[in-house]
Amino acid sequence: MSASKKKLIACFVAFVTVIILSAACAFAATATPTASNVLVDGKKISFDAYSINDNNYFKLRDLAFVLNGTAKQFEVGYDEKNNAIALTSGKPYTVAGGEMSGKNQGGGGAGAGAKTAAPSDARIFLNGLEVQFTAYKIDDYNYFKLRDVGAAFDFGVDWDGAQDTIAINTSKGYTQEGEVEGGVVGVWRFEGDEDVEILILNADDTFEMGIYYKDGKGVIVEGEYIIAKGLLTMTNVLANGKKTDKDIDYTFEQDGDTVLLDGFKFMRVPNNLAVAVLSSPLAPYPPA
Prior knowledge:
Elements: H1 3-24, E1 29-33, E2 37-40, E3 43-44, E4 49-52, E5 55-59, H2 60-67, E6 74-79, E7 84-89, E8 115-119, E9 123-126, E10 129-131, E11 135-138, E12 141-145, H3 146-153, E13 156-160, E14 165-169, E15 186-191, E16 195-201, E17 206-213, E18 218-228, E19 231-239, E20 242-243, E21 248-255, E22 258-261, E23 264-268, H4 271-279
Parallel strand pairs: 2-14, 7-9
Antiparallel strand pairs: 1-4, 1-8, 2-3, 4-5, 5-12, 6-7, 8-11, 9-10, 11-12, 13-14, 15-16, 15-23, 16-17, 17-18, 18-19, 19-20, 19-21, 21-22, 22-23
Helix pairs in contact: 1-4
């Protein structure tokens, strides 16, 4: 494996390690009721939510219930025999009963008070693919990290410290915590007849693009990027370690989980699949 390809994979591993390991390495923890206000598309709603290790955890069914009918709605199914939760994006939610009960907002509600949270042992499937979420079980209910759910279904999750308020916004996509608003951070994949391209846009305004030709040849391109006025401009560009003569401009249009780059469709790679994809970019996608 070339040094450039190793660097590309290393950059991506750093990008997804927190998400992948947080689920795999979860331990029993203390959960305290979330006292912050929660706004959903500007409307204040009381959730049965807990803070665990400085992150907010919500019941999946409560989120699905509240987001039902919005552009970011999702279905929640449960296979008791296999202890598996099935999540389907874009599908209307089927009410199971008991949603939005035991509200802890402001320390009130039936479940008020600190609880012991044990790592959830349920398997999670998102649109048919098994994925990893940071999840805990409290009083026989599964609670999921709000930011993980926001990333999975691409809704906005913002924090206003001055107002002690969590804002869920279904009119915009998910933004990586610490990312500049309006920037794009993610991993995107294009498959052509003769090549596969992997594009990584980082929060520090750097990018990596691996172009893998099916005849075995490849090119690693890296540098800095700016997205403005429908253009992705790549500057200080290195191609296989050699500086290019000029900047590169691509027309850029993002629509949910797809990006049109000069008219070519790149698909977002979910965080939990990206390490496998980068390790073997020419393998069938999504990986089995």
